[in-house]
Amino acid sequence: MQLGMIGLGKMGGNMAARLRDKGHEVVGYDAFSEERDVDTLAALVDRLAAPRVVWVMVPAGDPTASTIAELGDLLAEGDLVIEGGNSHYADDRARAEELSAKGIGYVDAGVSGGVWGRSNGYGIMVGGSAEDVERARPVFDSLVPDEGGGFVHAGRVGAGHFVKMVHNGIEYGMMQAFGEGYELMVASGLVDNVPGTFESWREGTVVRSWLLDLLSRALEEDPELSRLRGYAEDSGEGRWTVQAAVDHAVPAPAITASLYARFASRQDDSPAMKVVAALRNQFGGHAVTKAEDSGDA
Amino acid sequence: MQLGMIGLGKMGGNMAARLRDKGHEVVGYDAFSEERDVDTLAALVDRLAAPRVVWVMVPAGDPTASTIAELGDLLAEGDLVIEGGNSHYADDRARAEELSAKGIGYVDAGVSGGVWGRSNGYGIMVGGSAEDVERARPVFDSLVPDEGGGFVHAGRVGAGHFVKMVHNGIEYGMMQAFGEGYELMVASGLVDNVPGTFESWREGTVVRSWLLDLLSRALEEDPELSRLRGYAEDSGEGRWTVQAAVDHAVPAPAITASLYARFASRQDDSPAMKVVAALRNQFGGHAVTKAEDSGDA
Amino acid sequence: MQLGMIGLGKMGGNMAARLRDKGHEVVGYDAFSEERDVDTLAALVDRLAAPRVVWVMVPAGDPTASTIAELGDLLAEGDLVIEGGNSHYADDRARAEELSAKGIGYVDAGVSGGVWGRSNGYGIMVGGSAEDVERARPVFDSLVPDEGGGFVHAGRVGAGHFVKMVHNGIEYGMMQAFGEGYELMVASGLVDNVPGTFESWREGTVVRSWLLDLLSRALEEDPELSRLRGYAEDSGEGRWTVQAAVDHAVPAPAITASLYARFASRQDDSPAMKVVAALRNQFGGHAVTKAEDSGDA
Amino acid sequence: MQLGMIGLGKMGGNMAARLRDKGHEVVGYDAFSEERDVDTLAALVDRLAAPRVVWVMVPAGDPTASTIAELGDLLAEGDLVIEGGNSHYADDRARAEELSAKGIGYVDAGVSGGVWGRSNGYGIMVGGSAEDVERARPVFDSLVPDEGGGFVHAGRVGAGHFVKMVHNGIEYGMMQAFGEGYELMVASGLVDNVPGTFESWREGTVVRSWLLDLLSRALEEDPELSRLRGYAEDSGEGRWTVQAAVDHAVPAPAITASLYARFASRQDDSPAMKVVAALRNQFGGHAVTKAEDSGDA
To answer: What's the complex ipTM?
Structure first.
């Protein structure tokens, strides 16, 4: 089918390529890329035959918000917007309502798979009405892995990004668990072959997983991870997962621990631990005059 | 090769069967099973040609300790004991030293794979001297999956059980992450198709894994998990992982959270939360006379 | 000075009484209490001499929002609203802006102390302009403990409720720490005199605190806390503290653990732990047919 | 009464001084201090009239073990050893049994209060037989605060150190909660007066406590804690508390989080977070070649 793809970066560009390989006609636009087929959003809309389907794959936050607002002005009744970025599920609902007033449909799509997706296929989780989802189904079917699976219509608008958010929260927990296990093996002084241990776990064990495959690959390239710092950013989804858990009174200690470990990894010096150090010094009864730690009591 | 297998339960019995399928001669003994080939440990030792290799696969703790002590008396110089149960790595070192005084070798083997291992193969992680490990190599090679992988010689005696322990700690963290994600999706009221979401994640996503396959299978059989209680035992490995982390000053918050969630799942009523409730009542300034909770302040 | 007090419940009523004891003229109004001096909000405004100072002490959320909205219509330029409930600091800023457009001042006041405050005095933390805070200073000075202290002008509008929120977050952490310590002493089987231990800690130790005094009092009344269930509500402040921590990328593991322990205390059955149980059953390779747990692997 | 004090450091020296102030006859010995009254342990034993009471107040671990072993040889039937250091409760039981075989009594005493104890008095928690505890009661009564309280006979041998360990675990949790609250206030950018906020909390609030007094004092001396690094050691008690919690299947998430935060504060670079960074790089599909972080997926 015909599809407009807005955003031709690492994700959107690869997805457009995979769709073209599968026989779809993709018209691409990106404000910052030479790869684009048209030079403006208006030109993209002109190029597509009504009723149009437009996939938005630009950075979350302002770029997505302004793109969708502009599309609201350019598109016509009967068209459909698929928001494939990492939007918050609450924003989906507001956007869908605005577009709905103009007769424009809205589907939110969470996309997993990273740059491996072009060849392996993507995991696609969508939210929206059955009718809107059905219209875009040929696109979803071409994005998922060839062997099938990889697609779910999770619920109404917002549900696609919600389950993608939860997916990423789980991902945080799994990555942290591997990290803790790695550190413990290294610290023990007992394990001579840490990379080989992870490699061996790829078959036959309970923890076998794609993340383990990636970790094994990373350790093959850099057996002591000496080219990396223990520093990790967090994207919005991890924070949103914890905030959603708090909103719904769901205890999420492992996922939250994973998020906090990332926060801590980015701190040069922890203000909280300065307080602990200050208190330990106070036990000693002397003025705090140096960067030192006196003891518990 | 010829091997004595002590313990013919869910694990040992399946392993013996897999080894026989691969052409090994296995002499099995189990104090409580009719499947045994000999009726006593002494008969097992008699039946094997020296130098013997004996695999111990009985419950951790006393049964393993007494079996190995008895073997120490029955075996001869040049024989080899493989301890395949879930022993603590510190116990391995003590046992290896005792046997070593008699010229008997010792290899500790962590085994992963559960009842699926008979057909899929097992993950095998061993600790011991290069010589001892090499002697038993044909057995290890037949236990791992047919497609290869699944084996590591992790280090000296104790290293096999240590990395199996860490494997299980990671497994705790992964299971907990899936659990938290499931609960959040259910609590949100936004996700109409929770089983389908997990099913879709099996292909193309970052969280694809054997545990996800199992969870998807469980949700297919019982979509709301209504036949289960939210109650989970813990085996020794989870506790040992946390205790090793504390010993080595390794922060392990996600794995520890997973262990504590299991502890909490088994409590009818939490004494700690009684204290919180008692304090909240005290803020109200009145005597604690009923099972009620008055407020923060 | 003259003050209007809106809300004469457990907090507002006691505060009004303390202020009267200290010589202030308090005109009280409460939609649901016979103790009120006037029958409507309009009558309260009429009764006060301009420029007026009105303290709002009604439940957080809608009651506070509608009361302040109504006051916005009734009050005049130069009047001052003090919001003393448990509002979210972001709501303070929105309200202050609306009132400011009409020339009405706004101070947010966090109040700690519970029912003990009437006799002991309250902890008061305020946010607002120096001028607005100064106008209400005689009221604050009478609310705090007679021995002094207990007051801080923490920053601009919102800062009062923000630091009260953090205060409650810390309170959660302290209560949880006492709870965990209590449970461990009971579980150990080694401590014959748990209430006496807490009682002894009230003097000379590092953990001496008002919360410990309250806990010791609770254990004197009910040495095994047998009249209580391990069940604790959470008020908004605990959740907001965690959400603010996530917003600001501040690791807050102890406070978050305390919040999650309260969430878990209110669950009959944990959906997350059903997933863990389901996975453990799957290791066994058999269908999930009963509420039972088969093992790790 | 007459007492031998072994160890005249920060704790033992101050305790000896307090006891002398209260009229006790203290004979002091310290291997490394000029303050000693006798030059050898044997001389100390000679100087005391039988039946003797000897208080051991030397560093935990080997120094305590060797001192008590030596006392076992020097003391006679009817004498009493009080172990006041930070020993593990399991060691107490082994030592008590050995001394008991020679007719020597044993009391384990946890001591809280730090250098403030000399003037404020100490918190004293003891384990042992009623008879042994009674004999040393005059010493305990002089060590606790003048206003009374501060003493508990918690149970049999080991119970004193066990409850002191739990006391310190709770202390970890309280310190961490204050630290997290401090960091959140600083990070918010909303609180102009963080030291003043803590100071104000010392009266009228729920979190008022000795630790808050100390923190307020530290912030008065160094309002931004700029003379300190966010680095905290941990003594054995915190680790033992977590290990005891794991042994007894007691969820202790807040205390454990506090311990782990200390571990993390001492790491230049976290190996676990290197794994997270490596995995994030792998999502990008390129070799790990720099200390950089590519994204989640």
So the answer is: 0.94
